[in-house]
Design brief:
Helices cover about 30% and strands about 25% of the residues. It has two domains: about 190 residues, Rossmann fold; about 100 residues, Formyl transferase, C-terminal domain (Methionyl-tRNA Fmet Formyltransferase, Chain A, domain 2), CATH 3.10.25. It starts with a strand and ends with a helix. The chain contains eight helices and 15 strands. Helix 1 packs parallel to helix 6 and helix 5 packs antiparallel against helix 7. With about 325 residues, the chain is α/β, with parallel strands linked by helices. The chain is elongated.
């Protein structure tokens, strides 16, 4: 039975570990969480697999030199591994995109944002170039109208759980995989929490996709209401909406107190906002906090100028009092 070391920091690691346990001897897991309530840590403890919480590359190198694994499997890691490290063992990576397309970061998020028809899981050998190694396994799945980043991850995690262990064993038994066509490669940049601001002048479909792409466990798509940042966790397009020839994107045009929603103008239609959350508060129905069709979502220039004026007046008063 092959000896493997697993590196996994994110939500993909649990099914990766389960799949590897079924086919291999897992020597340890590199994971920056050591909480007994973490499902990965819980499963590792159950199987007497050590968890190493130091995820720095020097520590990974030390573990490889100590345990001499037949293979190092990576399922969610936030650093590019240098050639000097990957030369120490066979490295196999799990990447949630249809390689060679969507190399890089936040691949499932970007696929939903870009309205792609499919997401994918690719298991490939790691080479010095970013996500460039031979593909050992690949499976595409459709992205449906209602799919969120969470539901797509759930589906891809399930496929990983079914196939990863077997793919690793085949690779160690000589399967070289299929080289990628680098001419077809595309790349995705890292997404940061501040990248999640909604542009209400965009199309209804694009905003809907944007919200679905950033739901929990990601930070969420956000806008501003009465000067405060508010996250929109759930929304849906309004079918056959009234035609507004006078349109202010972000303006609330309808509200249902009983059903809890508000309808907001986009660049080309209407989006129904269902669930929202202010920072530090509980999630709630949008109609509980947005209570007027005179309201607008998003930062308003007049509101920013008023706030600047108030700050300037406050500073002047403080300076006068300090004299």
């Amino acid at each position: 039975m092959a000896n493997v070391l697993l590196i996994g920091l994110g939500t993909t690691t649990f099914t990766a570990l389960g799949s590897l346990i079924s086919k291999c001897n897992v020597l340890g897991i590199v994971r920056n969480i050591y909480d007994v309530n973490d499902p990965v840590v819980s499963l590792a403890r159950e199987k007497n697999i050590p968890v190493f919480s130091d995820t720095k590359q020097q520590e990974i190198k030390s573990l490889i030199l100590k345990y001499q694994p037949d293979c190092v499997v990576v399922s969610s890691y936030n650093q590019i591994l240098p050639p000097a490290l990957i030369e120490l063992s066979t490295f196999i990576n799990v990447h949630y995109s249809p390689l060679p397309q969507y190399r890089g970061r936040a691949n499932v998020n970007w696929a939903i944002i870009n309205d792609e028809p499919c997401a994918a899981i690719s298991i490939h050998k790691i080479s010095p170039d970013l996500d460039e190694g031979n593909i050992l396994f690949q499976q595409l799945i459709p992205i449906s109208f209602d799919d969120t980043v969470t539901s797509i991850y759930d589906k891809l995690n399930k496929i990983q759980g079914q196939h990863l262990g077997e793919v690793v064993v085949k690779a160690l038994n000589g399967d070289e995989g299929i080289p990628q066509n680098n001419a077809e490669a595309t790349y995705c940049c890292t997404r940061l929490p501040e990248d999640g601001e909604i542009n209400w002048s965009d199309s209804t479909k694009n905003i809907y996709n944007f919200i679905k792409a950033l739901v929990f466990p990601f930070p969420g798509a956000y806008t501003y209401f009465e000067g405060k940042k508010i996250i929109i966790w759930q929304a849906k397009p309004v079918n056959n909406p009234p035609i507004y020839v006078g349109r202010i994107p972000g303006r609330v045009v309808s509200r249902s107190k009983t059903e809890g929603y508000v309808d907001v103008l986009t660049g080309d239609g209407i989006l129904r906002i269902l669930e929202v959350q202010f920072a530090g508060e509980e999630k709630t129905a949008s109609a509980n906090v947005i209570k007027s069709v005179k309201s607008s979502l998003g930062l308003q220039m007049t509101e920013l100028l008023n706030r600047i004026q108030i700050l300037e007046e406050t500073i002047i008063k403080l300076q006068e009092n300090a004299k």
